[in-house]
Amino acid sequence: MKIGNLDQFTNLYGRIDAILIVNKDNVIEYSAMVTEDREYLRTDDILGKKLFEVYPELNEENSTHAKVMSTGRPVLNQKQTLTEPSGRCRTSITSTFPIENNGELIGSIDLSIDLPQQGIRTIGSQKLFCADDIITGCDSMEKIKEKLQKIAQNDSPVMVIGESGVGKELIIEALHTHSRRCQRPFISLNCAAVPDALIESTLFGTVKGSFTGSENKKGLFELANKGTLFLDEINSMSMELQAKLLKAVEEQQYMKVGGEEYVTVDVRLVSAMNIDPQKAIDSGKLRSDLFYRLSVVQFNVPPLRKRKEDIPLLICHFIKMYNEKMNKHVTHVNDFAMKTLQDHSWPGNVRELRNVIESAFNLVDGTVIRMTDLPDYLISKSYSNYLMGTNEDQETFRPLSEMMDEYERTILIRALKASTSLNNTAAKLQITRQALKYKIEKLQIDYQSLLVK
Cα–Cα distance between 238 and 286 in angstroms, integer? Predict the structure, then answer.
């Protein structure tokens, strides 16, 4: 049995997210999708079924399998969006290769990689952020809000620089919301999430016949015409593509992949980076001329660890948000937990804080978030610091009995979570079952929901 050259696909993308084998009668013979652990999981529920029944979006005209069966040649790099039987909508880049047996074409094999959602959003379909959505009590962030509203009405390129999770996209959406382009499209693309070989066609579009399986498709520049195009992590692009991007920004025109005529657009380009641009230039990851063109106006967003005064404000905001989403009535974070949150360095910035509060909402009982509701990595670090004497700020001291109860409650909950019964927990803590039961009742711990089932 002979299968077409698959090396060109795996060499180009470095991974395969799904495999599908279909025979010459359009019957699915094999199907597997990669899991989060990068292991292949067979999807046997669709075996033996007809391809077009499982994926009604496909037909003889647009199916890469049908094209391979009619021509005997591979179809490469076809973008397609399909609805899986589970209901999941999946956008992927697929290459389909013929399978031959003794010179006879007996079927095809699909290899595909999943593409992330490109974040195409407009004011009409989903409300974007505005300046008032930037929650802060920090002087540097207040200056960013003022600067944002000053330059929003202009068309100069803007670059936002800051660590991952600081809220760069919030600032960029607000720029669009306050601009004269606010009723036009806002389109975003994370350049690092799309294989380099596909970014050019994604940005500029394609002309039918330019390569096998290509169609007449608009690129993001054309889709964003009269609006705003946001490119995140532009330093992940190849230097060659950066040169083409620079030319498109300078001239507001470009040529589609396989095209022979220039397409003219009116787009405000906004970009973002999560590393120091000068370091990216020095290491050969960013063209200096592209940086100067795209950073006519610059925003440098400080990390959360340098604006600790924003932490309580953001916590209040996230509590309100998750109360609405989860139908809960949490009012605040207690002092001990708040001190832990204030002391954390927040390498993941605002995004990490939001995830911590969401995690706490999944565990909290009642109206107050306690230490025991926080993720384990924060609890461990907090008590380590406490025992080492690094949290001895006098204003955080409370009655000793209250602090001891809080500490004991945390230890008991962690032990219960790692146990199958009260006897098992008591053995771990080297106390009697009766003493354990007394402490559980005293500290009002719902132990039955914590024990390992």
Answer: 9
Residues 84 and 88: their CA atoms lie apart, in Å, by 5
User: Of 185, 160, 168, 170, which Cα lies nearest the Cα of 268?
Assistant: 185
Q: Is 262 helix (H, G, I), strand (E, B) or coil?
A: strand
- With H, G, I as helix, E, B as strand and everything else as coil, classify residue 260: coil
Helix, strand, coil: what percent of the chain each, to 5?
45, 20, 35
Write out pLDDT tens, residues 214-245: 678 889 999 999 999 999 999 999 999 999 99
Grouping H, G, I as helix, E, B as strand and the rest as coil, residue 57 is coil
- Asked if 142 and 286 sit in the same domain, the reply is yes
Domain CATH code at residue 128 = 3.40.50.300
Residues 408 and 383 in one domain: yes
Q: Comparing 45-49, 237-241, 277-281, which segment has the lowest mean pLDDT?
A: 45-49
Segments forming the whole domain that contains residue 178: 120-302
Predicted TM-score (pTM) above 0.85: no
Q: What are phi and psi of 80, to 5 degrees?
A: -150, 150
Angle between the N-to-C axes of helices 239-251 and 196-204, in degrees from 0 to 180, rounded to the nearest 10: 10
DSSP β-bridge partners for residue 83: 89
**160 and 263 belong to one structural domain:** yes
Query: 74, exposed or middle or buried, with CB in 10 Å at 0-12, 13-18, 19+?
Result: buried
Who wins on pLDDT, 404 or 280?
A: 280
Q: Find the radius of gyration of the CA atoms of the chain.
A: 28
Verify that 189 and 129 share a domain, yes or no.
yes
Tell me which DSSP letter residue 128 carries. P
Residues 295 and 311 both lie in one domain:
no
Residue 240 and residue 341 in one domain: no
Question: Which pairing describes strands 268-273 and 158-161: parallel, antiparallel, or unpaired?
Answer: parallel
